[in-house]
Amino acid sequence: MDLVSKEQAEYLIIRGDKEYEVVIGLEVHAQVTSNSKLFSTSSTKFGAEPNTQVSLVDAAFPGMLPVINEFCVKQAIKTGIGLKAQINKRSVFDRKNYFYADLPQGYQISQFKDPIVGEGKVILDMPNGQKEVGIERLHLEQDAGKSIHDMDPHNTFVDLNRSGVALMEIVSKPDLRSPDEVNAYIKKLRSIMRYLGTCDGNMQEGSLRADVNVSVRLKGAKDFGTRCEIKNVNSIKFMQMAINYEANRQVDLIEDGQKIDQETRLFDTKKNETRSMRSKEDAHDYRYFPDPDLLPLEVTDEFIDSIKSEIPELPDDKKKRFIDEFKISPYEATILVSDIEVAKYFEEVVAKMGNNKDMKLAVNWITGELFAVLNDKNLEISQSPISAKNLAKLINLIKNGTISGKIAKSIFEDMINGDIDPQVIVEEKGLKQQSDPKALEVLIEKIINENRDKAIEYKQGKEKLFGFFVGQVMKNSGGKANPQMVNEILKAKLQE
Ligand code: ADP
Ligand code: MG
After folding, report:
1. Is 134 in the pocket of ligand 1 (CB under 6 A)?
2. Of 34, 311, 314, 417, which shows the fewest CB atoms inside 10 Å?
3. Ligand 1: which residue has its CA nearest to atom 6?
């Protein structure tokens, strides 16, 4: 199983002299951020005791009537606008009929022919440039309950807390070509929805999961191959592993002269393989029909316009502005905008730096030192042990020459323990950079005198020794000497 990434960007599966391309389309299920469910007033809070957030509607008692939650409709439209998509003023809720223990209604209320959102697009920032991925549609539907399989004794329990929670199913066109693009796509989708506040994107809690459709074809072929759909994958890593396995499996079958059966498969995360669940169901297997308990959903232009007016600056626009306004690189801007909280933090640092801003320092300290600490302590930036205000102060102290970059790193370590004002640390510990030329001259002369022999060797051409002198001066000043001035004065003095 060789996996060769040719020309860096291309993901191809090679067998002998044949090159296969992988085609991927995702159906992402994103839980709508909303306090109550799509058709009932029960809470959606995660982590509650099983079956404590279940109304009669969610438990599908006979005669109970669903009532649409206007806020969830708003959230779906908002997401559609964020995906630059067509918003459909009229959409229809259908019953998708199937039997499962955690689906007491015997059907899921979903949208089939007339979804609330139509075609849109998402732009991916790939290392070799941007890539557009088409969105086919976004529709609203209910989540099912959850079966909990208890192995000892062999029991299965049903928790209906999730039953009826609003999901947005976002269906992509088959535009993705590699696990890396899938990674970028999910992250971009999540980023957009977090900016909008329409889905928290929390994959551990199941707020974002995907059905992954995979097919393969010879590179350059015009038609798509037969796809298999891998159900309900709940982490990006697993999606990538599943695609890798599944694409290789399909290529092996083709190479063996066999046909691909269109089927629904599951990904076994322990064995790292996909297995057949059932042959692919078609729409008619579900006996879709408009839910007679719900009228078609009609929204007005005014309603859509009022939602449009609430749309915040989204990642792509923010990235453009960061590049224009702050003169940072596209690469840096991509990192800073991908998480809305990081973008907020960065902008606060920039604001707090005042008039004499050093963007390069700000970007480096946030993406370097601060990210390392957050990573190390497993914290979100919103839980950062150092406030944007104090980080800005530290950066300004470097910028105006009060402290060296090296001293700043040691101050930074101290700041972590209680978000301490760096100015206070500088004063308490006497860390101010030595920038008085007179004092530096005295120190430098002393060191040259103590190392006369080396000074002569230097003058005779052994230039390497310059580093030795810089080191001695820095050491003698406790790291506080202004390095630039040390360089200048040393050069002059060693020539004397
Ligand atoms: P279904 O409900 O039958 O799964 P959908 O239209 O909801 O159908 O989703 C189909 C998904 O499969 C889309 O994301 C689409 O991009 C993807 N897809 C369609 N054809 C292929 C193919 N040949 N290879 C890979 N993905 C495909
Ligand atoms: Mg599907």
Report:
1. no
2. 417
3. 171
Residue 129 tokens, joined: 């440039």
Q: Does this model's pTM top 0.85?
A: yes
**Which ligand 1 atom is the nearest neighbour of the CA of 281?**
3
Distance CA 376, CA 257 (A): 50
Å from CA of 380 to ligand 1 middle = 35
Mean pLDDT estimate for the chain = 93
Nearest CA to ligand 1 atom 11: 25
pLDDT in tens, 131-153: 999 999 999 999 999 999 887 77
**pLDDT tens, residue by residue, 283-322:** 788 999 999 999 999 999 999 999 999 999 999 999 999 9
The ligand 1 atom at the shortest distance from the C-alpha of residue 214 is 25
Question: Does residue 227 line the site of ligand 1, with CB under 6 A?
Answer: yes
| CA-to-CA dists, residue 310 to 68, 70, 178, 190, 197, angstroms | 21, 16, 35, 19, 11
Contacts 24+ apart (CB under 8 A), 401-409: 401/433, 401/435, 401/482, 402/426, 402/432, 402/433, 403/431, 403/432, 403/433, 404/433, 404/479, 404/480, 404/482, 404/483, 406/479, 407/431, 407/433, 407/479, 407/480, 409/369
Q: What is the dihedral of CA 383, 385, 388, 389, to 10 degrees?
A: 130
Give me the residues near ligand 2 (ion), CB cutoff below 5 Å: 27, 211
Dist CA 183 CA 27 (whole Å): 14
Which ligand gives the minimal distance to the CA of 285? 1
Instruction: For residue 358, give the 3-state DSSP assignment.
Output: coil
